[in-house]
Records
---
Amino acid sequence: MQPTSFRFEVQDSVGVITLNRPELLNALTFTVYRELTDLFFALERDTSVKSVVITGEGKGFCSGGDVNSIIGELFARDMPGLVEFTRMTCDLIKNMRSLRKPIIAGLNGTAAGAGAVIALASDLRVAANEAKIAFLFVKVGLAGADMGAAYLLPKVVGLSRATELLYFGDAIDAPTAERYGLFNKLVPREQVRAESIAWAKRLANGPTFALGMTKELLNGELNQDLLGALDNEARAQAVCMQTKDFREAYDAFVAKRPPQFTGR
């Protein structure tokens, strides 16, 4: 699919999503939500894309839902209409986490509200030195538990830090987010896009079947006991041992050359 509400291009097997409403800090509309949700679903079956980058234009990554085009309209909805909307926002996160391909968020600036959860739902986060992140839902009278934030954030930063971030809704700066383990790498703003794509290309050139299996296991073991996790990993690793990539890694080691992975 070719979206109309943001840019999408494929560069060397990396699907690059660019939110491009910079004058509004890339605020989300109903259309952006739907098209992002549909795109992440479609990317599972798109063999031309092996990893994904999501980033923004201008000074912000994503400021969350557009106050005028979303928030104002929601006041006119009844309860079923509101549930329809909140389930749609959750479907976006579901499709991101279900995609068996790495997703890297290139945080060129502030990520707030839904934008913060999109960053959180990505697998890795490369951020500008001046970037900030805020799970600000409580500041507008909503539960801090939105779009899976209360599930995912404790897994990344721990329960105590997640409680602090979701209760207060305050923005934290990039060095703090890195110290919490929420940001993986900090770079100058002008390098965010290039560095995010470089990471994504490295993963796209790797053993993509094994990477997909890794993400699947990371998701599946979030609430699993040790014995169940060990059983899952034993079976998954046995599957990976049947791939051509596993054989290629061995042959390359013996031949003292770089491996040429194909995802098979």
---
Amino acid sequence: MKAIQKILLLTVLCLCYTGMLHAQLPGLPVGDPDVSNAPVDGGLSLLVAAGIGYGAKQLRKNNKRNIK
């Protein structure tokens, strides 16, 4: 149970601190309209899909173990 609480706390902290991360070039002002933001969606969506797939696999594995 302690491991699940630690993982949950780490996940919540990571989600809370993502607002402070900015992809900026050094020396440029914060609101410069000529600089585009770094793309995050492609890799992030793949990680979420992989996490969901891994979770589903573990649930099936645990269900098979409990049935026997």
